[in-house]
Specification:
five-stranded antiparallel beta sheet, mainly beta, globular
Amino acid sequence: MALAVDSSSPAIVTGETPRVTASFTAPADSLLVALCASDSGVVTHSVTNTGGSLTWTSRVKRDILDSGGNVSAVEIFTAPAVTSVARTVTLTSSSGGDYVVLKVLVITGVELSAPVGASGEGSSSTANLTPNVYTSTGRGSLAVGIAADENQGGSVTTSDVGFAWNVSGETSGIAVHKAAVTSTPGSTVTLNFNGTGGSRLWNWAAIEVLAKPDPPRIAVLRPTGAVHRAATW
């Protein structure tokens, strides 16, 4: 089953911690991916939800504590949603007064028993940044990621599918996913964070969402020595 970003994915939300998405109803057996950012250098993020208990797992994080890291913290969480009910998702920062960003993607066709393959993180001062985020491990996997700019250097775009924010005096950045899946394992995967036009201090993070394997083909067995006889009329 091919991976797809479902239309039930709620809009990006920004503002002072905590931030809550609008209510949404994901299809059963989908994966919720929470792309999170905050403008604090050292911070703990917490992701929670209404609509039944879900298990949220942090998959990758980048902040100032990493070697070469910049101030804005970015982190990606996932949670399998087995049942289809109305939910909201909340991002809370441990540093009171933080400006935070939350974009939740609802992805269908995921191997929920092991939903994430490779991951990557990094920092850069390159304005139009297209890093190699990881080497793919699964067939038909999907790259998702987020980048935040410490300098708050203005609007951000992408050549991928993006959800940008730009709040004067606070933060700017973009959450992204590839428009198409990566067909073969062992591929170098990139994501684009385009902040051309100003000085940037990026922190970025990305994960590989793995597809559910196709069901095995059913072999049709013919008896040994079977002979096809044409009909006679």
